Amino acid sequence: MTSAIQLEGLTKSFGEKVVLDQLDLDVAAGRVFALLGPNGAGKTTTVHILSTLMRPDAGVARVGGHDVVASPEAVRALIGVTGQFSAVDNLLTGEENLRLMADLRHLGRKEGARRTAELLERFDLAEAARKPLSTYSGGMRRRLDLAMTLVSRPQIVFLDEPTTGLDPRSRAEMWDIVRELVAAGTTIFLTTQYLEEADQLAHRVAVLDHGVIVADGTPSELKRLVPGGRIHLEFEDQPAFDGALAVLEDATRDDAALALDVPSDGSFASIRTVMDRLEAGRVEARALTIHTPDLDDVFLALTGHDAPKEVAQ
Amino acid sequence: MSTLAHTVADSRTMLRRSLLHAVRYPVITYLVLTPLIFLLLFVYVFGDTLGAGIGGEGTDAYLQYVVPGVLLLTIAGGVTGPALSVSKDLTEGIIARFRTMDISRSAVLTGHVLGNLVQVLLATAIVTAVALLMGFRAPASVLDVLAAAALLAAIGFVLCWLGAAFGVFAKGVESASNLPMPLMILPFLGSGFVPTESMPGWLQWFAEHQPFTPFIETLRALLFDTELGSNGWLSLVWILVLGLIGWLWARFLYERKTVR
């Protein structure tokens, strides 16, 4: 698969503080790549360098095959960026904002008007198209922001914490849009501090902590890296529960629910061991479920500190 | 698209944006009100006394004397417009968007400068119209009037670039609106409202060596056919110097502030 974005030894410091330390990454074209990390991990700095807003101190970054330092214009022609803070013109209407983008991308009058109408419709902004932005809700602003990024149909889209501060419904809408973009062949470089978001959207996830990539893989690969998996068993009655306890000495018990958790790496062998022991003790379980670790477990294991919790709305 | 065509197209787009801003957020009200208040105040309150002071016949004589100064005051007020709009852009997220797009580097500043120039020239036209209603009459030919208009436009243009530089230099919108203040006092500290000879020595020296005095005297020479002297070429030099400072400073600061 061809790569859309490549980083080699990317380093950036602000004064004494090293923000990015020898970052290596390779993002495949047409996929969603998520850079996951807490506040201050260096996510936004990475996006700023890749979108030509900032120059790296050392290392190489190529976007769409172009070096971001040597040929920023070529990079800018390929990319679209939606940052953390709304980048809309507050004195213009939604429609005027989109037309401004169309003009700056040199789409031409007719195509600009067509593309604007299309995006207003797609992003559910047609009704508010001619209203001033002061009347827009947070979700509408964010949709307009992304629509403005997409006016030129960029091949590579950077989304820096696209759903931070959005309500659950707006967040789900944003996820749908991202999935549509990928289905149309766009490469998405996403940063997020929400584990669920990376899990939902990304083909590949890199975990960034203090400017260093601590893990890189598919969401399920990452989950396999860490302990925390278990087999959850539920029983019909007290005798069955007691019988199971007798044969599964390493289980943690939940007396009220008549349930047991047995540590497991999720492998077939570990499941068979549990089932064999139950069979030997002639115990029937009512239900068996396998829990693989979620990205919260991954985060804790990889960085040694808790995953960031969602900020209260 | 060639680089030049690119720059022109982007600057035009940014000019359109700036004019839309002007419609939504009409700075022009302030651009007109401040000089009008001074015009009315100086003519109707102080005019009789000041008119006698410059050796004329009361209020009307003073009106003829003060209008060029008030017009330059209007033009000087135009510095605030680009200072505000440029600094507002830089404090908002939209500038980051522009910078990640393949658009001409200077287009953002050029758009603000030209958009604000349109407003300040409109304001000058309104102030002129009021002055005419009050009885201002200049015995000038059409050609002289056109030359006067061109002079005002040229001064407005370079001051707008200076304003844009203030806008990039300012830490925030508030300081951007304060920075141009000293510049707007200059028409008072020149020959705009009273002849420089009536000032104390040290102030007279300053008044005679600051740009607004030759600007005002050149305007008077064009409108009333008074002695031009060295004021013509002094004005030209000041326009070039101020323009070059404003343009270079604005672009230099803009580059430095936006590329890290």
UniProtKB/TrEMBL annotation, chain A:
Localization per Swiss-Prot or TrEMBL: Cell membrane
Keyword Ribonucleoprotein in annotation: no
Molecular function as annotated in GO: ATP binding; ATP hydrolysis activity
Family to which the UniProt record says this protein belongs: Belongs to the ABC transporter superfamily. Drug exporter-1 (DrugE1) (TC 3.A.1.105) family.
The keyword Electron transport is annotated on this UniProt entry: no
Classification via SUPFAM superfamilies: P-loop containing nucleoside triphosphate hydrolases
Domain ABC transporter: 5-235
Protein's UniProt name: ATP-binding cassette domain-containing protein
Cellular component aspect of the GO annotation: plasma membrane
Gene3D superfamilies: P-loop containing nucleotide triphosphate hydrolases
Keywords from the UniProt entry: Antibiotic resistance, ATP-binding, Cell membrane, Membrane, Nucleotide-binding, Translocase, Transport
A Gene Ontology biological process term: daunorubicin transport
Topology relative to the membrane: Peripheral membrane protein
Higher taxonomy: Bacteria, Bacillati, Actinomycetota, Thermoleophilia, Solirubrobacterales
Organism of this sequence: Solirubrobacter phytolaccae
One Pfam family, short name: ABC_tran
TrEMBL record, chain B:
A GO cellular component entry from the record: ATP-binding cassette (ABC) transporter complex
Alphabetical keyword list: Cell membrane, Membrane, Transmembrane, Transmembrane helix, Transport
Entry keyword annotation includes Transmembrane: yes
Transmembrane annotation, as ranges: 22-45, 65-86, 107-133, 145-169, 176-194, 233-254
Cell compartments where the protein resides: Cell membrane; Membrane
PROSITE patterns registered for this protein in UniProt: ABC_TM2 (PS51012)
Main location: membrane
Bilayer disposition of the protein: Multi-pass membrane protein
Domain of life: Bacteria
Record InterPro entries: ABC2_TM, ABC2_TM_bact-type, ABC_2_transport, Nod_factor_ABC_transporter
Residues in ABC transmembrane type-2 domain copies: 26-257
Molecular function as annotated in GO: ABC-type transporter activity
Coiled-coil residue spans: none
Pfam family, one: ABC2_membrane
Family: Belongs to the ABC-2 integral membrane protein family.
Protein name: Transport permease protein
Organism: Solirubrobacter phytolaccae
Species classification: Bacteria, Bacillati, Actinomycetota, Thermoleophilia, Solirubrobacterales
